[in-house]
Amino acid sequence: MSPTPMSTVTEVREAFAGGRDYLAACTGGLFPRASVAALTADLARAVDRGPDPRALTATVEAARADAARILRVDALDVAIGSQTSVQVALIAANLPDDAEVLGVEGDFSSLLLPFVYAGRGIRVRTVPLADLAGEIRPGVALVAFSLVQSATGEVADAGAIVTAARAAGARTLCDLTQAAGWMPVDAARFDAAVCHAYKWLCAPRGVSFLALAPEYAAGLRPVQAGWYAGADPWVSTYGTAATLGPGAGRFDVSPAWQAFVGARPSLELFAAAPIPEIHAYTTGLAARFRAERGLPQPELPSAIVTWPDPKGADLARLTASGITASGRAGRARVAFHVFNDDADVDHAVAALRSP
Fold first, then answer.
1. In this structure, is residue 170 part of a structural domain?
2. Rg (CA), the chain
3. Cα separation of 208 and 198, whole Å?
4. What integer pLDDT is reported at residue 246 of this predicted model?
5. Given the DSSP bridges, would you call strands 171-175 and 192-196 parallel, antiparallel or unpaired?
6. What are the beta bridge partners of residue 230?
7. Spatial separation of the C-alpha atoms in residues 263 and 271, rounded to whole Å
8. What's the half-sphere exposure (Cβ side, CA atoms, 13 Å) at 237?
9. Which string of DSSP letters, residue by residue, matches 163-175?
10. Residue 198 Cα distances to 68, 110, 240, angstroms
11. Tens digits of per-residue pLDDT, 218-249?
12. Are 60 and 260 contacting, i.e. CB atoms less than 8 angstroms apart?
């Protein structure tokens, strides 16, 4: 059953108990109340009764369905995992020898390193994000990029990248981890898309998803197949005769059960959330922060704001004022999510004006 849609940002905000002065959703999201309650109940049950594997399997499948709604694909096209790097490694393992992978300079390493260390002559070439579409040429096997850059908050022009890749005969792999939860995403635009849920989707670490176009998935070898990749995992636990699952399910890995217990309420929340309104709300807060700080507004709005801070002085000012922010690649970084508001903007601006 699909979750009941939420009509306002306020309804989503009310699902969270905290958020004041927390400007680090790009590092890790805050758990909504329902996720905390689900984890607490599961731990209490485990004290004297242990896990209930079949109930936990139902939770995993419900989380898969919610993730599919968030990613705007069919649940049959979504594989579950615990780390995006492992799911990217599946894509790397299926590239032909001597393939060229085109990526973005400074992109998150979990998206790039599986190709760097894939061996078999696979080559990785990186270019600035703004140049990515123009650098796609015949002979490129795969274009791998994050929709939103972790270090800078830049938003990729996915339409231009996908169009150029198709013209050149290249596959596309997009990391949606820094986008899903605050901006509309559509994994169906890409041959493959990965997303970890512990950032903007506010879930525990250990829950990730791989969405695959059916035509692309049909040609991939399930090199990481285990018991949960079976059509019925409970009859695929022994031996070599397992029948693998339909669709992307044959690329599943054994789920981290407790992480999925906490993730399911978070994913249900965002599957029902008015994401276009959240996008307008969060990028509006970020735009106001940029204006107050005299920072340029990006062409494509982002809920992540970064600026040069090579010695960490600005991050130290924010931290000293009780604000949780982050620093990446010599830059200070703040992120505005649905649990933030104008008071968070005001406090951060004031903190940065302090001596």
1. yes
2. 21
3. 8
4. 87
5. parallel
6. 244
7. 12
8. 3
9. HHHHHHT-EEEEE
10. 16, 15, 34
11. 999 999 999 999 988 888 888 888 889 889 99
12. yes
The SS3 of residue 307 is strand
268 & 158 share domain: yes
- Looking at 252, 272, 292, the residue that finishes a domain is 272
Domain shared by 151 and 173, yes or no? yes
User: Could you tell me if 105 and 249 lie in one domain?
Assistant: yes
Res 344: pLDDT: 98
Torsion of CA 34, 177, 296, 284, to 10 degrees: -30
* Same-domain status, 184 and 332: no
Is the model's pTM score more than 0.90?
A: yes
235 and 148 together in one domain: yes
The reported pLDDT for the residue numbered 328 is: 86
pLDDT, residue 2, reads: 66
Judge whether 287 and 337 are in contact, CB under 8 Å.
no
- Total Cβ atoms within 10 A of residue 70: 26
Q: Rounded to 5 degrees, what are φ and ψ at 212? A: -130, 135
Which residues of the chain, if any, have pLDDT below 50? Answer: none
List the structure tokens of 146. Answer: 């994050």
- Of residues 137, 138, 142, 133, the one with CA closest to residue 102: 142
The burial class, CB within 10 Å (0-12 / 13-18 / 19+), for 307 is middle
Number of domains in the chain: 2
CATH number of domain containing 242: 3.40.640.10
Q: Are 173 and 202 in contact (CB under 8 A)?
A: no
Domain shared by 246 and 347, yes or no: no
Q: Measured between alpha carbons, how far is 2 from 69 in angstroms, rounded to an integer?
A: 9
Q: Are residues 266 and 280 in the same domain?
A: no
Clarify whether residues 159 and 300 are in a common domain: no
Are 101 and 121 in contact by the 8 Å Cβ rule? The answer is: no
44: its two tokens: 């209490």
Pairing status of strand 140-146 against strand 123-127: unpaired
Q: Retrieve residue 165's tokens.
A: 């890749």
Tokens linked to 328: 């990446």
Which of 225, 277, 231 is CA-nearest to residue 253?
225
| pLDDT tens column, 80-103 | 999 999 999 999 999 999 999 999
The CATH number assigned to the domain holding 299 equals 3.90.1150.10
